[in-house]
Amino acid sequence: MANLVRAKISALGTYVPPRLLTNEDLEKMVETNSQWIMERTGIKQRHIVDKGVGTSHLATEAAKKALAERGMSGSEIEAIFLGTVTPDMSFPATACLVQNNLGAKGAWGYDISAACSGFVYALQTGVKFVESGAHKRVLVIGADVMSSIIDYTDRATCVIFGDGAGAVIVEPATDENYFMDFVHEVDGSGGCFLNMPGGGSLHPASHETVDKKMHFVHQDGQQVFKYAVRKMAEASERVLERNGFKGTDVDLFVPHQANKRIIMSAADRLGMKEDKIIINIDMFGNTTAGTIPLALDSARQQGRLKKGDLVLIASVGAGFTVGAALLRWAC
Ligand code: UT7
């Protein structure tokens, strides 16, 4: 029997910390130049937290904005799913800290670790809980403080990442504007190309792990680049094809913002024109789980996201993790 309940996004909120780290600032910190960063990544600036600010703060601020937009209080939320690889601490989950900050007394929830696909994975989870009838008001958050795990002497990684968060409320759909489908993949053989090896059970924090810089992001940029272009396009094609659409039918392509060249190559494979793609990496850098809600918000602010639009979301992240979602925008 067909599933009668469909799910929609009913509100969106985002938050980035006020402090800017520009390409020119980075020129003073490592051997790089603004032109290289712009040409190779598309990034001009990123937002960075001040000391003492963790992911739960960014997540809470984004969630408060989404709740205010919907005219809802935290106590009406039933579940919180939060994608992050930079939780405030190993445990408790950042979702628990956010639950407390929001006064969401009736909500349960947990963190989802899928790196740059964290928001799409959390979204799939939230949507399924609504479609199953288990919940009616779910908060889905993507939030990361990447600056907490970046080596600001490593020019290959420190120019890419920024801090930021976004939150959406997922509720039962009331018309034809709802989530149609998701595609997810994991390829654990790619774990060696992008990771932070220190601080887990395998390499607990010690003087040695600190000396070996194991608490920072380690990346083989070219391997990640090639995989991201191929998989972002493949996952998008799969979710489009199995729902009877082509790339040219999409009103707005909302890709994970890792590198402008990755986005343009993937879009090219999908036959998409630039005016259908949202790119805001110049403003925020790669905020990991935060990029997709931040991109949706940029699209909305630019007047490029209307009710009924066919929206394609795609992400690739450390793991490797892959995600794509197809929906009609509902708010
Ligand atoms: O969400 C997933 C997270 N990660 C990604 O998506 C990353 C995907 N990969 C990338 O975005 C790119 O591979 C990077 C932006 C990381 C690097 O760009 P690239 O075009 O692949 O550069 P490369 O690693 O091939 O390096 C080219 C040159 C090297 O110099 P030589 O050996 O040719 O003399 C690097 O040392 O550029 C040099 N380089 C830099 N130069 C100035 C690397 N980083 C920098 C830098 N400034 N920041």
What is the strand and helix layout of this fold?
Elements: E1 7-15, E2 20-22, H1 23-27, H2 34-41, E3 45-47, H3 55-70, E4 79-83, H4 94-102, E5 108-112, H5 118-131, E6 138-145, H6 155-158, E7 163-172, E8 179-186, E9 194-195, H7 207-211, E10 218-219, H8 221-241, E11 252-255, H9 260-269, H10 281-284, H11 291-301, E12 310-317, E13 321-328
Parallel strand pairs: 4-5, 4-6, 11-12
Antiparallel strand pairs: 1-7, 2-3, 6-7, 8-13, 9-10, 12-13
The structure holds oxa(dethia)-CoA.
Descriptive tags:
331 residues, alpha/beta, Peroxisomal Thiolase, Chain A, domain 1, 5-stranded mixed beta sheet, 4-stranded mixed beta sheet, 11 helices, binds oxa(dethia)-CoA
Description:
- There is one protein chain.
- The chain has eleven helices and 13 strands.
- By secondary structure, it is of the alpha/beta class.
- It has two domains: 7-172, Thiolase/Chalcone synthase (Peroxisomal Thiolase, Chain A, domain 1, 3-Layer(aba) Sandwich), CATH 3.40.47.10; 179-328, Peroxisomal Thiolase, Chain A, domain 1, CATH 3.40.47.10.
- The chain has a five-stranded mixed sheet with strand order 1-7-6-4-5, sandwiched between helices. The chain has a four-stranded mixed sheet with strand order 8-13-12-11, sandwiched between helices. Strands 2-3 form a two-stranded antiparallel sheet.
- Helix 3 (55-70) crosses helix 4 (94-102).
- It is globular, with a radius of gyration of 19 Å.
- The model has no long low-confidence stretch (mean pLDDT 97).
- Bound molecules: oxa(dethia)-CoA.
